Amino acid sequence: MEKDDLLLPKDFPKLKNDAFLRACQGQETPHVPVWCMRQAGRYLPEFREFRAGKDFFETCRSPAACCELTLQPLRRFPFDAAIIFSDILVIPQAMGMDVQMVAGKGPTFPEPLKEPEDLLLLQPKVDVNKELGYVFKAITLTRHKLEGKVPLIGFTGAPWTLMAYMIEGGGSTTHSKAKRWLYRHPEASHKLLKMLTDVIVEYLLGQVAAGAQALQVFESHAGCLGPVEFQEFSLPYLRDIARKVKDQLKESGQNVPMIVFAKDGHYGLEDLSQSHYEVVGLDWTIDPCSARERTGGKVSLQGNMDPCALYAPKERISEIVKKMLEGFGTRGYIANLGHGLYPDMDPENVGAFVEAVHTHSRHLNHK
Ligand SMILES: Cc1c2[nH]c(c1CCC(=O)O)Cc1[nH]c(c(CCC(=O)O)c1C)Cc1[nH]c(c(CCC(=O)O)c1C)Cc1[nH]c(c(CCC(=O)O)c1C)C2
Q1: How far is it, in rounded angstroms, from Cα 72 to Cα 138?
Q2: How far is it, in rounded angstroms, from Cα 75 to Cα 224?
Q3: Range list of β-strands (E), 189-299
Q4: Which of 160, 294, 340, 362 fits a disulfide with 37 by CB distance 3.0 to 4.6 angstroms?
Q5: Measured in angstroms, how far is the CA atom of residue 87 from the centroid of ligand 1?
Q6: Which residues contact 39 (CB under 8 A, 6 or more apart)?
Q7: What's the DSSP call for residue 6?
Q8: Which among 240, 130, 245, 154 has a CA at the least distance from the CA of 194?
């Protein structure tokens, strides 16, 4: 057994940069903290080299590999948070579904759920320590190896987004198979969403016990729902997750900020700001000032530069960042992109984005 396998979720190094955690709680920070969704990813040559020839989910199951991939972007850029390398689809796997990463196609379920009877094929009670213990080990190891540089974010997919993958069998533009269930099998849909919620709550609590210092819930497919379906099939479960995780953590005197990111779900912004999350993540289709107005100062905000703005020259990136910071203000704000980095993005421009956030926000704070 390697020495690293024996590391326990205690005696973690002291946190040196708490700007991200302070911003989650709406407290003052010397600069606006920044990180990027998919900051560990194929835009980095060292990521491509490390992942070459290895199966994606095998990589996810290796704590040492996840730790290395999580740390890679932090060696290049002064990000204010790390996010554990993993994937949202480890939950359907833990529930008994086969998921493979097919090159050029993305995640694929050879046998997606087709009809409500298929729910019987899923594990009724998932032992998260047994099925997802490898993620917890990755978190513990990474938290030690981060040496307190920045906080470590854990994450999960939200119930509706995971349900969509489990029925579609992979990525989709219409999500019509999954939405068919909402209209044709609402009861079975709620049953599945409830099953997912139960696993997600245990999974997030396990991540915190392992050392995660913040949690992000990705509702990546909020945008294919309308406001009515969002109210019925997404929001109640997002709320349940935050409430249950927080209630449990409170019992042990812990307070871990939670972020909800419902991509393209701007119709739900007011509701999301009153759903027990400290932070609401935003995609780039919302204007910073109106997001602030609509959330009424109840939550911190995270986002939301169009990832494609990273294709612009550095000077333009700097101008765009400045405008974004002026719109959000520097308090209760975490800079990020409106969605993940793409593989063809230039790492240098990612560096320019991070630097622009730090420089302009320090300047705005001293005005
Ligand atoms: C780097 C990567 C990941 N997943 C996938 C890749 C690319 C494949 C590879 O490198 O081989 C496949 C991978 N995994 C998924 C997809 C999308 C498939 C599709 O819908 O078409 C792909 C290409 C599913 C997935 N996976 C994730 C989401 C939610 C965020 C989002 O909306 O993008 C989703 C939807 C979460 C995720 N996934 C990953 C992280 C790592 C941490 C970080 O951000 O640095 C995270 C947070 C890691």
Answers
A1: 14
A2: 36
A3: 214-219, 258-262, 279-281
A4: 340
A5: 6
A6: 73, 77, 79, 83, 341, 350
A7: G
A8: 240
Give the integer Cα–Cα distance in Å for 137 and 1. 14
Q: Within 13 Å of residue 13, how many CA atoms lie on the same side as its CB?
A: 16
* Residues annotated as part of the active site: 38, 42, 51, 87, 165
Q: How would you list the strands of the sheet with 214-219, edge to edge? A: 82-83, 152-157, 214-219, 258-262, 279-281, 300-305, 333-337
Q: Over its length of 367 residues, how does the chain's per-residue pLDDT go in tens digits?
A: 567 767 899 999 999 999 999 999 999 999 999 999 999 999 999 999 999 999 999 999 999 999 999 999 999 999 999 999 999 999 999 999 999 999 989 999 999 999 999 999 999 899 999 999 999 999 999 999 999 999 999 999 999 999 999 999 999 999 999 999 999 999 999 999 999 999 999 999 999 999 999 999 999 999 999 999 999 999 999 999 999 999 999 999 999 999 999 999 999 999 999 999 999 999 999 999 999 999 998 899 999 999 999 999 999 999 999 999 999 999 999 999 999 999 999 999 999 999 999 999 999 999 7
Question: Residues with Cβ within 6 A of ligand 1?
Answer: 37-42, 51, 56, 83, 85, 87-89, 106-107, 155, 171, 218, 220, 340
Tokens encoding 251: 């019992």
Inter-CA distances, 37 with 98, 191, 218, 265, 291, Å: 26, 30, 10, 17, 19
- Domain boundaries, position 207: 3-365
CATH code assigned at 240: 3.20.20.210
CA nearest to 304, candidates 352, 264, 273, 272: 264
ipTM value, please give it.
0.92
Pairing label, strands 100-102, 106-108: antiparallel
Handedness of CA 72, 18, 63, 11 (dihedral sign): positive
Report how far apart, in Å, the C-alpha atoms of 137 and of each of 96, 133, 249 are. Answer: 21, 6, 20
Counting the structural domains of the chain, the total is 1
Candidate from 51, 61, 86, 88 with most ligand 1 atoms within 8 A of CB, to mutate: 88
Q: Which residue type does 194 have?
A: K
